Amino acid sequence: MKSSARTVVTLALVGLCVTSVSLHAQTSAGGVASDTVHEPVRPPHYWRDFTAGFAASLLAHESAHIITAYAVGSHPWIGFDKGRPTVYSGLNAVREPRKQFLFSSMGLNAQAALDEGILDAPHERGSAFERGMLASGLATAVFYVTIGRTAAVSDVDFMARTSSLSKTDITYIYGGIAALHLFRISRDAHYADFFVRPQPSPSTGGLLVGVRVLPEQTH
Length: 219
What we know:
The chain has 219 residues and is mostly helical. It contains six helices and five strands; from the N terminus they run E-H-E-E-H-E-E-H-H-H-H. The longest helix has 26 residues, at 46-71.
């Protein structure tokens, strides 16, 4: 009867995907090792636009739940489950399983459709906003097919209870879609360095992790 995007956990997951540290260690002239962290150069307002896109995808997820509930004749409402904002369908899952299934599945369906549109529709690709939307869609799918499968308000759990599909079937469906989108993103140059922060120059793009030791200067 209820559905939640688990926003906090999802944000944590995407944070693991899209953040990295660029490390560069070298010895000083006196031969004493020193660690320096180089902050990558980012386009203006990159993280603001990325966050806006991420939030927009989550909003589409929840809006799809609400619109579907109204479309099937129910009256959804927003409450809290253990302090977390949750959209409740207002349906009886036992008496109206098909309607509940539609309600529970539509959030992930909406995000998958948005990601597919971004990857398919001709446009100028690679903006921070659409990167945020793609990351949100991927992170939400990953959450629901992993630790979110058995949560009290899990969409996957309600889909399995109101259809002939098992949780494993649903995991394969949405996990497979997410994996396909991830593969396409990895093969598209417009989304280069999708999982790491932009680097200072094209020649050092990507994730820089390592240690460089310079020989001690002699005089």
